[in-house]
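Budget justification aside, the reviewers requested a transparent look at the raw inputs and outputs of the sequence design task funded under Objective 1. We therefore reproduce one unedited record. The lines immediately below are the structure tokens for a 351-residue chain.
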């Protein structure tokens, strides 16, 4: 297996032009922290983005950072932290910015910070046939081509190679507090109603974690609301969130998504430890069996109008029907005419 390490965007353009002409299949790699997400694909070489790791521009006053796609998340957060800011994702430090975007990683704080694509202002990619394409703008007012990144975030490197991105960052919260409450999914739903604008509400088999982040006065008011509803709750500052992740201790981790109102019905089919984001509809489930247990969970998710792809371990994306499959295939043909980027990795087995 050949490993390709381009140092510049021009290098990536040249690699993709040659690959397209030679029908040489490529898998795009960053920190290799999300490669289990996606269907297996046979490739001839791996294209690593880790040399594209520069902080191109950073304006703390504007809360915009422009970075190479190969920059490690931990390095970016350290640079932003020097100015009291953060990129609101919760990926592992060794992950790359481009990899997080390509995998469409969901944050446990998604209720308040939104999807990862919401932080993208401008994106530069190299298409499968070697075209350098820019979408969006570094200022929100200039929105020419602004929606193209919504196609690329979560496309698993099958439409193009992300080479540079302008990110909207935010101030670090002054207080990070976790309120733990004994209870179940219904408890979590009551917390979501009782506490104004929480950062996250996570239901697990061991109880509920309410995450609060912001200014001290705001967090104190939210804590008081939680304690008024559940006097037995316990609050502690500066815990990691989630404080415990038993689902990550299993060999197979599924990231299921259903309409938020159907989360309870989904959990009826969860045989392993889970973490369910109330108000969002995303649930991580740890499994020992990539066959029977996974099949049952996927059948329930599909019946509820959702999906249940594996994000770590064997099990791939699943065979849930892909909406507008013909449109998806036309997008693949437009971005990657020769089909050299991770053929078969995406939903529906794009080739």
């Amino acid at each position: 297996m050949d490993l390709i390490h381009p140092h510049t965007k021009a290098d990536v353009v040249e690699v993709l032009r040659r690959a397209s002409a030679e029908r040489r299949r490529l898998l795009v790699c960053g920190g290799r922290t999300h490669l289990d997400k996606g269907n297996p694909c046979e490739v001839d070489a791996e294209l690593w983005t880790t040399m594209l790791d520069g902080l191109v521009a950073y304006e703390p006053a504007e809360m915009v950072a422009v970075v190479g796609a190969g920059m490690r998340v931990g390095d970016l957060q350290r640079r932003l932290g020097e100015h009291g800011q953060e990129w609101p994702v919760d990926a592992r430090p060794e992950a790359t910015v481009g990899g997080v975007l390509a995998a469409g990683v969901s944050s446990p704080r998604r209720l308040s910070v939104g999807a990862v694509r919401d932080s993208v202002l401008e994106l530069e990619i190299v298409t499968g046939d070697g075209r350098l394409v820019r979408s969006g703008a570094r200022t929100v007012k200039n929105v020419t081509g602004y929606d193209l990144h919504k196609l690329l975030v979560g496309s698993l490197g099958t439409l193009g190679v992300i080479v540079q991105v302008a990110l909207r960052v935010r101030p670090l919260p002054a207080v990070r507090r976790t309120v733990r409450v004994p209870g179940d999914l219904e408890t979590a739903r009551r917390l979501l109603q009782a506490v104004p604008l929480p950062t996250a509400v996570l239901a697990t088999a061991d109880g509920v974690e309410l995450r609060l982040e912001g200014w001290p006065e705001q967090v104190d008011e939210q804590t008081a609301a939680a304690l008024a509803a559940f006097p037995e709750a316990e609050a502690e500052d500066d815990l990691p969130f989630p404080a415990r992740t038993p689902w990550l201790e299993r060999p197979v981790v599924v990231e299921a998504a259903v309409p938020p109102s159907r989360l309870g019905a989904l959990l009826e089919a969860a045989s392993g430890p889970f973490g369910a984001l109330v108000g969002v509809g995303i649930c991580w489930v740890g499994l020992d069996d990539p066959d029977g247990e996974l099949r049952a969970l996927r059948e329930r998710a599909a019946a509820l109008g959702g999906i249940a792809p594996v994000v770590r371990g064997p099990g791939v994306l699943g065979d849930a029907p892909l909406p507008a499959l013909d449109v998806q295939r036309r997008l693949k043909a437009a971005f990657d005419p020769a089909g050299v980027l991770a053929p078969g990795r995406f939903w529906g087995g794009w080739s």
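The chain has a mean pLDDT of 92. Residues 27 and 342 are 5 Å apart (CA to CA). Computational costs for records of this kind are itemized in the attached budget.
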